[in-house]
Amino acid sequence: MNLAAPVEIALRRITAHDNAAIAGVIREVSAEYGLTADKGYTVADPNLDELFQVYSQAGHAFWIVELDGKVVGGGGVAPLTCSEPDICELQKMYFLPVVRGKGLAKRLALQAMDFAREEGFKRCYLETTAFLTEAIALYERLGFEHITEPLGCTGHVDCEVRMLRAL
């Protein structure tokens, strides 16, 4: 008889020890979808290898998704730079294929928005690209609405899909 070991999925706040692993996930998923640094996607972020330090600031939070102790995804929320102070941004939502379709992105996004609401934010903004259809569908189900003009100073020039949601 072949008994499969139980799968353990954890969603927890980032630690300094997660920096290399989550940067690796982001790079791997970016490569899978052709999200290159020359187009201003997350892989161009100069702080990609220091996400714990970035998300340890006030009003910031980042969560790691672990599968059997291995980092397989994550995402965060932070104040939207160069914007009205009541707008946050859902950021860096990346998941390896092994955990896609299991409701973890929804769970993480809801947790991020709860955190943002507790921090006093009134609206949540995000940017993505049109070929990430599964992500866009999730954001629409979560109540994000498409907007035409970019908000803030994200630097993501090729993220042509912009969405906003009241918290």
UniProtKB/TrEMBL annotation:
InterPro entries: Acyl_CoA_acyltransferase (IPR016181), GNAT_dom (IPR000182), NAT_camello-type (IPR050769)
Keywords from the named record: Acyltransferase, Transferase
Signal peptide coordinates: none
GO molecular function, one term: N-acetyltransferase activity
Domain N-acetyltransferase: 9-167
This enzyme's EC code(s): 2.3.1.-
Entry keyword Acyltransferase: yes
Top-tier EC class: transferase
Protein name: Acetyltransferase
Source lineage: Bacteria, Pseudomonadati, Pseudomonadota, Gammaproteobacteria, Enterobacterales
